[in-house]
Amino acid sequence: MIRALKEKYKTEQVFWGVIFIAPTLIGLIMLNLKPAVDTIILSFQKSTGFGNQIWTGLDNYRRMFHDVEVWQAVGNTFIYALLTVPAIIILSLLVAVLLNQKIKGISIYRTIYFLPVVSTPAAVAMVWKWLYNSDYGLINFLLSKLGIQGPNWLTNPHTALLAVAIVGIWSAVGYNMILFLAGLQEIPKDFYESARIDGASPAKQFFSITIPLISPTLFFVTVTTIISSMQVFDLIFMMIDTTNIVMPKTQSLIYLFYKQSFILNDKGYGAAIVVLLLVIIMFFTAIQLIAQKKWVHY
Amino acid sequence: MKSKTVAIHIVLILGAVIMVVPFLWMISTAGKTFAESVMVPPVLFPKSFQWSNFSSVINKFPFITFYINTFLMCIGRVVCSVLFSAMAAYACARLEFPGRDLFFGLVLLQMMIPSQIFIVPQYLLTQKLNLLDTIPALMIPGLVSAFGTFLLRQFFKGLPKELEEAAKLDGCNIWQTFVKIMLPLAKSGLISLAIFTSLFAFKDLMWPLIVNRSIDKMTLSSGLASLQGQYGTNYPELMAASLLGIWPMVVLFILFQKRFVEGISSTGSKL
User: Fold this and answer.
1) Residues of B with CB below 8 A from A101's CB?
2) For chain A, which residues make up each domain, given as ranges?
3) Quick one: CATH architecture of A61-295?
4) Which of B12, B28, B55 is the last residue of a domain?
5) What contacts 24+ positions apart, CB below 8 Å, involve B5-10?
6) Same domain, yes or no: B36 and B153
7) Which residue range is the domain that position B78 belongs to?
8) Nearest 10 degrees: CA dihedral of B155, B156, B158, B160?
9) In sequence order, what DSSP letters do the residues of B151-178 get, joined into one string?
10) Domain count, chain B
């Protein structure tokens, strides 16, 4: 038995292998694995002040299921994802396809589209808040030139989440465009040549060559974009003031988690909220992992 | 030019305008007097550019400290996570030892879980270590990187094995082979990961916001957030502050554009 193991693993490799993974393993256990378990435990507890926790079983979850604010936040998170995910995918794919043509100035376009990605969300949110300003903002001024009376974007419950979503889309297109561009550049050009000779229209080429061949990238972008849109926090935190009346209509689950855990200091309830988000994200990721077998070609 | 090319340029220019106008508006507003900023119709170009907006926010808020804090946070995270990820990735790609697959499973699991689930216990750990309101606190969540380990493992797997065998024949042990042969070969992967790590550390808002509440321990992100909280309506100054907050990463991006693009491209191949 020991001899068999020795044959399989050479001593030197075992020695260095363990040393090489040690820092990352310890880090992952201390900073991720244990915290994940702790958060789940915390969600069954209530803080009694001074750092003491008492076990309350399913109380936080029971409270959550009757909490209108939580369900509103679930709804807001879904609406935000529905507003941003399709737009991000379509626009970044469109830009990538256009940049994949033989045209001049590709690197200038690429730089410009990528600028929001390297800008810190705190600054991005501030300038958009200013653009959306109902009295002095550039957006409503331009709308008024077209004869449209612009809304109070960030204080109107019908437009606030849309306004935040637009910034979310604007910020994410550049990043995913780069991913798509990398996928597109791997498609051999002669595929399109022969399709053209066969008389396939550009639309037909797009759906029967481009889409299947970039389906792994498309899958990756879809999964990661859904996950990150469900975790939206920065833009809401920066653009919607805590006293803004539209807050219940815009706050996401992560915003609510932040509020409960660090402002209201109810870390147990905050933990239950973040566990709910984990379950939702896992559910959507699992569905996509199953569905990908039908449409992703590796 | 063919009409198709013209059409492509029109669409791309339209998109580029939407991308760039917020930045131009940021610059223009940062140069206005307060009175100019609230004029209707809006003033596109300030009469004379008000550099005083910049000195005024620097006087109110310690931007130099924010730069130093942000820089130290990025350096700490980059050095630790790139080194540790490279070691773990090399072990996963090339060495055989018991528990390797279990370890890699843990790496994949971490990548699939939303990071907010770790935040409260990480905060409590930081508190227990007495590190709240310190620079090391900013580095804590980024000391190791599951994503980095995953990315570099792919990278090491793609390198030819012959070089390691040659090194072995020359009498190098595994550590020497790793440091002298493999790390130099993986340079572009390491740089990609370093860029990636600093970009995400730079943009991170929630963590610096919760661990460091004194103004002199804030990063650019959390500093800007607290600035907005205090001077919410003076937009010329807020825009000057935003420009002060974004220029370092924009300059880095323009200088190392190719690396940024390569780095991001290398992450999207497979889930």
Assistant:
1) 5, 8
2) 2-42, 61-295
3) Orthogonal Bundle (1.10)
4) B55
5) B5/A101, B5/A103, B8/A98, B8/A101, B8/A103, B9/A103, B9/A105
6) no
7) 62-230
8) 150
9) HHHHHHHTS-SHHHHHHHHTT--HHHII
10) 2
Question: Quick check: helix, strand or coil at residue A231?
Answer: coil
pLDDT tens for chain A, 298 residues long, are: 566 655 667 888 999 999 999 999 999 999 999 999 999 999 999 887 766 788 988 999 999 999 999 999 999 999 999 999 999 999 999 999 999 988 899 999 999 999 999 999 999 999 999 999 988 999 999 999 999 999 999 999 999 999 999 999 999 999 999 999 999 998 888 888 888 888 888 888 899 889 999 999 999 999 999 999 999 999 999 999 988 999 999 999 999 999 999 999 899 999 999 999 999 999 999 999 999 988 888 7
Q: How far is A109 from chain B (nearest CA, A)?
A: 7
Residues of B whose CB is below 8 A from A298: 270
Candidates A16, A20, A24, partner chain B, best to mutate (most B CBs within 10 A): A24
Judge if the upstream peptide bond of residue A188 is cis by omega within 30 degrees of 0: no
Check CB contact under 8 Å for A98 and B12: yes
Interface residue B225 vs chain A (CB under 8 A): yes
Residue B120 and residue B50 share a domain: no
Q: Are A169 and B22 in contact (CB under 8 A)?
A: no
B155 vs chain A: nearest CA distance in angstroms? 16
Residues B77 and B46 in one domain: no
Give the type of residue at A298: Y
- Closest chain B C-alpha to A48 CA, distance in angstroms: 16
Q: Say how many CB pairs under 8 Å bridge A and B.
A: 291
ipTM, 2 decimals?
0.93
| Residue at B38 is within a domain | yes
My answer on whether B8 and B139 are in the same domain is no
Among B9, B19, B85, select the one facing A103 at the smallest CB separation.
Answer: B9
Q: Does B213 touch chain A (CB under 8 A)?
A: no
Query: Is the CB of residue B256 less than 8 Å away from at least one CB of chain A?
Result: no
- Domain final position from B16, B34, B55: B55
Q: How far is B215 from chain A (nearest CA, A)?
A: 16
Do B139 and B199 belong to one domain?
yes
B268 touches chain A (CB under 8 A): yes
- The Cα–Cα gap between A230 and A97 comes to 27
